[in-house]
Amino acid sequence: MKNFSALIQKHQLFEKGSAIVIGVSGGPDSLALLHLLNNMRETWQLKLIVVHVDHMFRGEQSEAEMNFVLSYCRDLDIICEAKQIDVTEYARRHQLSSQVAGRECRYQFFKEVLDKYQAHYLALGHHGDDQIETILMRLVRGATGTSLAGIQMKRKFHHGFIIRPLLPYTKEEILNYCRKQQLLPRFDPSNEKTNYTRNRFRKYVLPFLKKENPLVHERFQHFSETLLEDETYLQELTKKYLNTVLKRKEKSKVEIEINGFLELPMPLQRRAIQLILNYLYGTIPASLSSIHIENLLTLLSQNHPSGSLDYPNGLKVIKSYQNCLFTFEQEEVKAYYYELDFPSSLILPNGYVIKSELVRNASIKRDRNETFLLNMDSFDKPLIVRTRKPGDKIQLKGMIGRKKVKDIFIDEKIPIHNRSSWPIVLDGNGRILWIPGLKKSMYEAESTGNGVFVELQYKEL
């Protein structure tokens, strides 16, 4: 095949002296790739290791393909790591489609072989026709960002890289190469079944495109490479601006500030959501599409203060006033009830602490809702710290009647997901004295004077 070695150098796919693991199914694509790399083995001082997975879908036929690969590698004096995996059972156990299960099993074995031989390159036989099919399938499905660029010629994988040196070539060029080199590859009959989406694109769409332009694979490859360049730049820009609106980033949850987010240009908004999803999921589910992102953008731009969306695999997106929370943690915070000693420090489940101290001649910090002062003789003991209950009401200073705690949360625009863990401080008689950080009751000490006081402080850990 023309310019194969030059293509390796142009795209810097690997260096001389590299150890390369080659995925070989026995079909024409992977067999041609193995043959091409083997031709370079001596001059480039390459260490080649072949890896083959028998998915056990086709019984004796797939086992025969495994034995063919083993035999071919013996003839070339190349190490071959072959493994039979019951993918059907794996798919049943993990409730996956056969294709997804096959990929998971295959790539896990690839990692094991890479580690065994301390190799940093995994070479796979995807070609230009595969690129066209992949881009079209993802476009139809509603993919976004770098996913639309299809198959990358070189990308990070495990402790190294996946490389695909055959992307600039068509299937027909590969078949011609196999015929010329008398390689005698094996053919998987499942590739002809039209119940697979990819096979339908291959059979019905690809021939039309090639008739319109015989070099259409080159146009798709150019599209892929330029889109990746654009996306790389835009994503770096997005990371920079996303950090300005990020309020919280934990293992299973991310929270952003909505007003600042909506000030970003729309292309950065879409990519920011994609970055958040990539971080939380690790591997984006196939069922997640651009529709999910558009629905979220609509939710965030609406005037209604709250709302939520359910994403695949249990991810929930919750809008509450000026905050938007992405979280896998769906469990409600358990109600708590503590008696507060003084002096003491009470660590709360929401990441805050209430500190109590005994003071004399205290100064009242009336303008701060993070502190509360009680005269030791003016309340029933003990002090209680608990989560809210339905019907909770507080007597605010200067107010006739009592106000619902629920309404205070709404007025103060406290995110819905934070309300169930917010502390309420009461005295032994059940009177709500203080909603830390939000409101004080009429029962706070009026003046310092002489005497002993309990000073309460509400602080973040």
From TrEMBL:
Claim: Cell wall biogenesis/degradation is one of the keywords in the record: no
Top-rank EC class of the record's enzyme: ligase
Leader sequence range is none
InterPro entries, A to Z: Lysidine-tRNA-synth_C (IPR012796), Rossmann-like_a/b/a_fold (IPR014729), TilS/TtcA_N (IPR011063), tRNA_Ile_lys_synt (IPR012094), tRNA_Ile_lys_synt_N (IPR012795), tRNA_Ile_lys_synt_subst-bd (IPR015262)
Q: What Gene3D superfamilies does the database record attribute to this sequence?
A: 3.30.465.60, HUPs
ATP-binding recorded as keyword: yes
Annotated binding of ATP, by residue: 25-30
Q: Which reaction does it catalyse?
A: cytidine(34) in tRNA(Ile2) + L-lysine + ATP = lysidine(34) in tRNA(Ile2) + AMP + diphosphate + H(+)
Under the GO molecular function aspect, what terms does this record hold? tRNA(Ile)-lysidine synthase activity
Concerning SUPFAM superfamilies, the annotation shows: Adenine nucleotide alpha hydrolases-like, MesJ substrate recognition domain-like, PheT/TilS domain
Principal location listed in the UniProt entry: cytoplasm
Q: Where is the Lysidine-tRNA(Ile) synthetase C-terminal domain?
A: 383-456
Q: What is the similarity comment for this entry?
A: Belongs to the tRNA(Ile)-lysidine synthase family.
Q: What is known of its domains?
A: The N-terminal region contains the highly conserved SGGXDS motif, predicted to be a P-loop motif involved in ATP binding.
Protein name as it appears in the record: tRNA(Ile)-lysidine synthase
> What's the source species for this entry?
Metabacillus niabensis
